[in-house]
Design brief:
Elements (H helix, E strand, L loop, with lengths): L1 H21 L3 E3 L13 H5 L28 E8 L5 E11 L3 E17 L13 E18 L4 E13 L3 E16 L2 E8 L4 E5 L4 E4 L2 E12 L4 E8 L27 H6 L2 E8 L3 E7 L8 E9 L3 E8 L7 E8 L1 H5 L10 H10 L7 H29 L8 H10 L15 E2 L4 E2 L1
Parallel strand pairs: 1-10
Antiparallel strand pairs: 2-3, 2-17, 3-4, 4-5, 5-6, 6-7, 7-8, 7-9, 8-11, 9-10, 11-12, 12-13, 13-14, 14-15, 15-16, 16-17, 18-19
């Protein structure tokens, strides 16, 4: 409760700051703090950047903080991307599992360019490489939290981002996001993201204040096991925004109209989505392909991932664009706990995983005491027919009432007394509910 109170207090603080700033100069814009929308992880990027639907990509905490509710181990993740004109994007995140099906994530990133040549007003053009350089960058710090509810069917997540922009003038930005995922059935989920529920705001040194209104996105994911291929297909889809018009033409053709909302033009809204397909082999290899925009096949994405000894995950993504140069992205995730320990119990398994576990695992060996008990239970059943046969023989023996009593006494007197045999078979052990009797 104290954590939620801090979140509410922080939200009220930023809302109050936004209202005070709007009293002076507030401009509503599209894409304030757009750096937060750049895809950092190679896995989600190879799936068309349908990050909201992807589970287990801890480089996507900006979009789907709900996945922190499933964190069992500590993970450290890093990614590097080189864009056109030597622009680089570096991202690092840390996931910390908490009790009661909770998780905490922190992330730090830098998006910018270095060694940009410039000439001050009035200075002569330098000769050769003797010129002044500058750097421009956006620095982002994020904190995320997630928890599971409703008997493991609902995952909720909150994320807060602070941005510092160092350009010709400096500025600060802030945005809060809320995400959720609900389990419809085994291996089928629906997710939602309310981006900028605190509004996405930015303030500049010049005194200008900008903000963008909240936006909502939907996503679906479905898993299909394929046993004869020793793996499973994973399908991911993420929608365009529901609340506002947006530009969906990647080739920047101004004559093309689009960006309609779902109730205005459902087909146009669906074309603004993105998605991908992943096949995950049981031995750790994953192959991926996707589209970052359904409006054109020139936005195709592809990639692969490999899990090494459970503690190391390496991913690669290739992203094409109708106008700009292709982008190559690499990310690495490392778990310190899994490096020195075996994975913990899987906990709750869906029907598919449970049936697969029952078929593939070897039967457990019973302890010696249990095997002795089972043998004792079987012994009376085996001995019962022998006792019954002896009784049958005795009953079948004829009784002669005319036998002489004296001959009987003589036989009794002269016959030697036989000693009990030491090799007699011991009486069977009979096990009852309370104790074992011999």
């Amino acid at each position: 409760m104290s954590f939620l109170k801090k979140i509410i207090s922080l939200r009220n603080f930023f809302l109050a700051s936004a209202l005070v700033s709007s009293a002076f100069a507030a401009d509503r814009v599209v894409g304030a703090n757009a750096t937060l929308d750049i895809e950092p992880g190679a896995r989600s990027a190879a799936l068309g950047s349908a990050t909201l639907a992807v589970e287990g990509d801890y480089l996507g905490l900006t979009t789907n903080a709900w996945q922190l509710s499933q964190a069992k181990y500590m993970w450290a993740s890093f990614s590097h991307t080189s864009y056109y004109e030597d622009t680089k994007y570096d991202y690092a995140s840390m996931v910390i599992p908490l009790s009661n099906k909770q998780g905490l994530g922190v992330a730090f990133s830098r998006f910018g360019a270095d060694d940009i040549p410039y000439i001050r007003d009035g200075e002569p053009v330098p000769e050769g490489s003797d010129y002044n350089t500058l750097s421009i960058a956006d620095w982002v710090f994020s904190v995320s939290w997630g928890r599971r509810f409703l008997d493991d069917r609902l995952d909720l997540g909150l994320a807060f981002h602070v941005l510092y922009r160092d350009m010709d003038q400096s500025g600060w930005g802030f945005r809060g996001d809320a995400s959720a995922r609900y389990k419809i059935m085994d291996d089928f989920y629906v997710s939602g993201l309310l981006k900028g529920w605190t509004s996405s705001a930015a303030s500049w040194d010049s005194g200008e204040f900008e903000y963008s209104a909240p936006e909502f996105y939907l996503a679906l994911s479905y898993g299909l096991p394929v046993e004869y291929l020793y793996g499973r297909f994973n399908f991911y889809w993420q929608s365009a925004g529901l609340f506002h018009h947006d530009s969906r033409d990647l080739d920047f053709d101004e004559d093309t109209h689009g960006g309609e909302r779902i109730w205005e033009d459902p087909l146009d809204w669906l074309s603004g989505g993105r998605g991908g397909i992943e096949f995950a082999f049981d031995f750790g290899l994953k192959l991926r392909v996707g589209l970052s925009s359904f409006t054109t096949f020139k936005s195709v994405t592809a990639g692969a991932g490999l899990t090494i000894m459970n503690f190391l995950v390496v991913d690669y993504a290739f992203e094409s664009h109708p106008v700009f140069s292709p982008v190559h992205r690499v990310s690495i995730s490392f778990s310190p706990y899994l490096f020195g320990h075996k994975p913990k119990g899987e906990g709750h398994l869906n029907k598919t995983a449970a049936s697969k576990k029952l078929v593939t695992e070897e039967p457990e060996e019973l302890p010696i005491e249990d095997s002795v008990g089972e043998t004792a239970q079987e012994a009376p059943a085996t001995a019962a027919p022998a006792v019954q046969s002896e009784r049958t023989v005795e009953s079948a023996a004829p009784v002669n009432p005319a036998v002489n009593v004296e001959s009987t006494d003589a036989a009794t007197t002269t016959a030697p007394v036989s000693k009990p045999s030491t090799n007699a078979t011991p009486a069977p052990i009979v096990e009852t509910d309370d104790e074992i009797l011999e």
